[in-house]
Amino acid sequence: MDAAFSAEQDEIRCTLRELITKRCGPDEVKAAVRTPLGHDPALWATLAERLGLPGLALPEAYGGVGCTAAELALACEELGRALVPSPLLATAVLAAPLILALGTEEQRAAQLPRIAAGELTAALAVPGTGLATALGLVGDNAGDWAGGGRAGGVQARVRDGVWRLYGQAEQVLDGHSAGLLVVAAHAGGFARSRTLLFLVCEGAHGMARARQTSLDETRTQGRIELRDVEAELLGRDDADVPGALAAVGDVAATVVAAEAVGAAGRALERTLDHVRQREQFGRPIGSFQAVKHRLAEVYVQVEAARSAVYYAAWAAGAEAVGGLALAQGLDALRAAASEAVQLHGGIGFTWEHDAHLYFKRALGDDLLFGPPHRLRSRSADQAALFTALTPETTTADHHSDPPPG
Predict the structure, then answer these.
(1) Rounded to whole angstroms, what are the CA distances from 98 to 58, 69, 251?
(2) d(Cα 112, Cα 197) in Å, to the nearest integer?
(3) How do the residues of the chain divide into helix, strand and coil, expressed in percent and rounded to 5?
(4) Would you list the DSSP string of 57-94?
(5) Cβ-contact 123, 129 below 8 angstroms
(6) What is the crossing angle of helices 7-23 and 41-51, to 10°?
(7) Quick one: pLDDT at residue 225?
(8) What is the pLDDT of residue 143?
(9) pLDDT score for 384
(10) What is d(CA 82, CA 221) in angstroms, rounded to the nearest whole number?
């Protein structure tokens, strides 16, 4: 495997950094998240038209660029540096790949070119707070997380030859503003219990949406209420929905990890700039050995997480290591954000300072996609890391003869 970046990949990184530096500073981020959409539509249009970001990983046959998860991760690392609020994660990382994997040819042709052009945003609506479970990041997603016939989920049934949805989904990334929803729902009752995905267009009769107050303002979330809403089945009713969600989840974990690494790196840079300028006892506080040690530990953690992210991006589709990369990315971001708050002193604890944006991103991603210890536990289960410790082996070791002498 060649670990070096290509000229095209370097160009994606440089072009994005230049654009975001000019268009999305801390003040612009705070202004964008307080708009009804939760992001800057002009910046989103530029990212779509100039860079083709929504279709970066979509096939050229559907208007995409035809790149891989590696390019998508590099792009999102740059967006993460500035905590850019945008529908990219919900649209291009979660919803579009599911349409590509499970949709009929007619559904792909109708939706994917519009997504690639930036004309249509989309969101994955999962009942309750189970996004990480649905994506197979913290446990097996073959269960009844979509509803299982009980209240609290989303139920799907056929009436007069038309699928109808009833239920509620919370914590839907960009769910309040997306033009297309990919809704996970429980169907079949107890006789043929299964999870299916459905397409629901903006303005569907019986659907109510509202923006939710979220810990991390830069990741807008919405609540979706469905009351006998007509929906279109995505693909076939015998499709392997858990398998498709798990595949998308591995790439999504890699992308979120890349965002976390970008944010952690930028938080560390800002902290380094501060400790070089802030003086105490007549000298910069960055010259104190204790401060150097703390920031050195963060630097090592961030670089280790970056290496894990790059490997996960290159191995996407061959190895399911996105969860491990995400665990390291979340730990690195939390460490960098915590040190940023601490070493900025009294001002770092105020809402007015930018350090709290990075700290909120760390906590928000932990709630949505983590926590890290569960991500690692799931990865260990998938790798069968502890299956060698069978009861027979343990018993044999316990009763073995002691060594001579």
Answers:
(1) 11, 15, 12
(2) 16
(3) 55, 15, 30
(4) TS-GGGT-----HHHHHHHHHHHHHHT---SHIIIIII
(5) no
(6) 160
(7) 94
(8) 75
(9) 84
(10) 19
SS3 25: coil
Q: Distance between CA 261 and CA 337 in Å, rounded?
A: 11
- C-alpha to C-alpha distance for 185 and 169, rounded to whole angstroms: 10
Under 8 Å between Cβ of 25 and 40: no
CA distance linking residue 74 with residue 318, whole number of Å: 19
- Confidence (pLDDT) at 208: 96
Strands 207-212 and 283-284: unpaired
Q: Which helix (H) or strand (E) holds 55?
A: none
For 353, phi then psi, to 5°, come to: -85, 150
Q: CA-to-CA distance for 133 and 124, rounded, in angstroms?
A: 13
Give the pLDDT score at 152: 66
Secondary structure letter of residue 404 according to DSSP: P
Token pair in block for residue 139: 């446990």
Q: Is the pTM of this model over 0.85?
A: yes
At a CB cut-off of 8 Å and minimum separation 6, what does 390 contact? none
User: Given this model, what pLDDT does residue 405 score?
Assistant: 47
The CA-atom distances, in angstroms, between 76 and each of 61, 73, 194, 249, 261 are 23, 5, 33, 16, 10
Per-residue confidence (pLDDT) for residue 337, from 0 to 100: 94
Rg (CA), the chain: 23
Which token pair is 119?
């004309």
Which has the closest alpha carbon to 233: 192, 199, 186, 193?
199
Query: 3-class secondary structure for 195-241?
Result: EEEEEEECCCCCEEEEEECCCCCCCCEEEEEEEEEEEEECCCCCCCH
Sort 139 into a burial class: Cβ within 10 Å, 0-12 / 13-18 / 19+.
middle
**Could you count the other beta carbons within 10 Å of the beta carbon of residue 401?**
5
Peptide bond into 371 cis (omega under 30): yes
Tokens of 390: 């069978």
Q: Which helix (DSSP H) or strand (DSSP E) does residue 99 occupy?
A: helix 96-102
| C-alpha distance from residue 270 to each of 318, 327, 343, 348 (Å) | 36, 23, 11, 12
Quickly tell me which residue has 């401060």 as its tokens: 291
Confirm if 184 and 195 have CB atoms less than 8 A apart: yes
* CB distance 258 to 313 below 8 Å: yes
157 DSSP β-pair partners: 164
- Is beta strand 194-201 parallel, antiparallel or unpaired with respect to 154-159? unpaired
- Going by the DSSP 8-state scheme, the letter that residue 128 receives in this structure is B
Q: Which regions in the chain score pLDDT beneath 50?
A: 398, 405
